[in-house]
Design a protein that fits this description.
The chain has 354 residues and is α+β, with helices and mostly antiparallel strands. The protein has a single domain, classed as YerB-like (YerB-like fold), CATH 3.50.90. Strands 3, 4, 5, 7, 8, 12, 18, 21, 22, 23, 24 and 26 form a 12-stranded mixed beta sheet that branches. Strand 23 and strand 24 form a beta hairpin. The longest helix has 9 residues. It is globular.
Length: 354
């Protein structure tokens, strides 16, 4: 079912899933050594020693030859967006990690785009990449922007050189120190941030049909992004066993090259976003700052096999992108990992939700 027909489905009250409700009635329990705090990125308990540490935002090559990826399954948040209007709108992943030292290998890494710098700024994240077009220069020069470019480990894998660069344990810490960057949240960020948590989170896992009494809620077990990302043929499918959305591309389930884990998410956000093409080579920037006023949905939020329409707002370069429900209230995510897809406006009505 295409998005333009989905409105009819939102008029129906989504049926409650009794088993799911029973499973989610109790708070999430975790085994943790030492003191913990609630992660600002996932809403889950993690070591308190990480509380002040800045995340990193790693640009991961998403061309088929770059597979399998390493370390993507450990990311707290994964963005997918067009990297170019050329080559059937090939996408690139931007993976955000809080506890990056716990991930042995991340990559392979590639170049960065202006939109990546803008979005990483929301998190005070240090961008990790290998170069990029000159359009990035003005953004990397911003006082709030720190980046580590190129010079990471080259791991022989039988592929061309551009597919062999990976971030390995200890490299980020060494590079941060060499660059003179702060490993912890910067004073500029701390003085301007609106709140500690990037998203608002439910204290315990909650069905959308419970939050909204079924109003405006529809079932959603398959998300077809192929019309937006035809090169990668990106899809997300709901896994009832894990109660998360598994990521597929190129017709196959995405699994990590290191440990075989599926790339899967508790929360999925699709954000309708226009873009401006910068030259004939297909370089672009998403119009990710500002508000898209509309009487129709400018986004969707999925969790636990259900979906609601949302709108979004980003009021400045380093401001948090906030997502709102039909009542005008900011949505609350369920604790867990999040996928955010920036869907080009010209393909928005063609994506499929079923």
């Amino acid at each position: 079912m295409k998005v333009k027909n989905l409105a009819k489905k939102f008029l129906c009250i989504a049926s409650a899933v009794a088993m799911a409700v029973a499973l989610m009635a109790e708070p999430i329990q975790v085994q943790a050594a030492g003191e913990v705090y609630t992660s600002e990125l996932t809403g889950l308990p993690i070591s308190a020693s990480l509380k002040d540490q800045r995340p990193i935002a790693v640009m991961v090559d998403n061309e088929k030859v770059a597979l399998k990826h390493f370390g993507t399954a450990e990311a707290d948040i994964v963005y997918e967006m067009m990297n170019s209007t050329a080559n059937d709108r090939i996408t690139r992943l931007m993976c955000i990690y809080k506890d990056y030292n716990s991930v042995p290998t991340i990559g392979s890494i590639r170049s960065i785009r202006p939109t990546n710098v803008i979005l990483a700024g929301e998190y005070n994240a240090i961008c990790v990449h290998d170069g990029g077009p000159y359009y990035i220069n003005e953004w990397l020069a911003k006082p709030w922007s720190d980046n580590l470019s190129a010079g990471f480990a080259r791991i022989p894998n039988g592929k061309k050189r551009e597919f062999t660069e990976y971030v390995t344990t200890g490299e980020v810490n060494n590079r941060i120190a060499a660059a003179g960057y702060s490993k912890n949240y910067t004073p500029l960020y701390l003085s301007t941030r609106e709140r500690e948590s990037h998203f608002l989170f439910n204290p315990v896992e909650t069905l959308l049909s419970t939050t909204y009494g079924g109003v405006g809620v529809a079932s959603a077990t398959q998300i077809n992004l192929t019309p937006a990302f035809p090169h990668n043929k990106s899809m997300l499918k709901y896994n009832a066993n894990t109660m998360t959305y598994d990521y597929y591309e190129y017709g196959s389930l995405h699994t990590d090259g290191e440990d075989g884990q599926a790339l899967t998410f508790k929360n999925v956000i699709l954000q309708e976003t226009s873009f401006s093409q910068l030259d004939a080579h297909g370089y672009l920037i998403y119009n990710a700052i500002g508000y898209m006023p509309s009487t129709t949905a400018t986004g969707y939020y999925f969790t636990d096999g259900q979906v609601i329409p949302i709108t979004w707002y980003k009021n400045g370069e380093t401001a948090i992108t906030k997502y709102y429900d039909y009542t005008g209230q900011e949505i609350k995510l369920n604790p867990g990992k999040t996928y955010i897809g920036l869907i080009p406006s010209d393909a928005w009505t063609a994506i499929g939700i079923g």
